[in-house]
């Protein structure tokens, strides 16, 4: 079993983050964090998971802009990591950070309620 898809995914994650922070100057691309990359076994597709700060509307707009940049990113990634056929890039919104934040808020709320009931 080859580890090549995992190595390619990690390289794509690193390069995508670098390109987004240094090369993409579109103001609609706000604070974006690349949280993970999944590459198909045949290396034809790469799902790039991103976390975007801001409102739901802002997130959708950022995702649309990123999808429009996908062709540029694909060619740039292919050049940087020197692979013959760079995978087609599909951006997906990673909402796991939202879930973590919501859980923390709930735990803090429970903690406050317990503290006030003990007083």
Automatic annotation (TrEMBL):
Any one Gene Ontology molecular-function term assigned to this protein's record: ribosomal small subunit binding
InterPro entries in the cross-refs: KH_dom-like_a/b (IPR015946), RbfA (IPR000238), RbfA_dom_sf (IPR023799), Ribosome-bd_factorA_CS (IPR020053)
Highest rank taxon of the organism: Bacteria
One Gene Ontology cellular component annotation held by this UniProt entry: cytosol
Keywords: Cytoplasm, Ribosome biogenesis
Cell compartment(s), UniProt: Cytoplasm
GO biological process: maturation of SSU-rRNA
Family to which this protein belongs: Belongs to the RbfA family.
NCBIfam families given in the database record: rbfA
Subunit structure: Monomer. Binds 30S ribosomal subunits, but not 50S ribosomal subunits or 70S ribosomes.
Record function comment: One of several proteins that assist in the late maturation steps of the functional core of the 30S ribosomal subunit. Associates with free 30S ribosomal subunits (but not with 30S subunits that are part of 70S ribosomes or polysomes). Required for efficient processing of 16S rRNA. May interact with the 5'-terminal helix region of 16S rRNA.
Protein name: Ribosome-binding factor A
Source species of the chain: Desulforamulus hydrothermalis Lam5 = DSM 18033
């Amino acid at each position: 079993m080859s580890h090549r898809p995992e190595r390619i995914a990690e390289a794509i994650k690193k390069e995508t983050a670098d390109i987004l922070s240094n090369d993409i100057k579109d103001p609609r691309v706000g604070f974006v964090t690349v949280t993970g990359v999944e590459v198909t076994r045949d290396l034809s597709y790469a799902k790039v998971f991103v976390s975007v700060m801001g409102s739901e509307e802002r997130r959708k707009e950022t995702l649309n802009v990123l999808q429009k940049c996908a062709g540029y990113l694909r060619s740039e990634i292919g050049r940087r990591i020197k692979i013959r056929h760079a995978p087609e890039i599909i951006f997906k919104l990673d909402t796991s950070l939202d879930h973590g934040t919501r859980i923390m808020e709930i735990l803090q709320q429970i903690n406050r309620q317990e503290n006030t009931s003990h007083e």
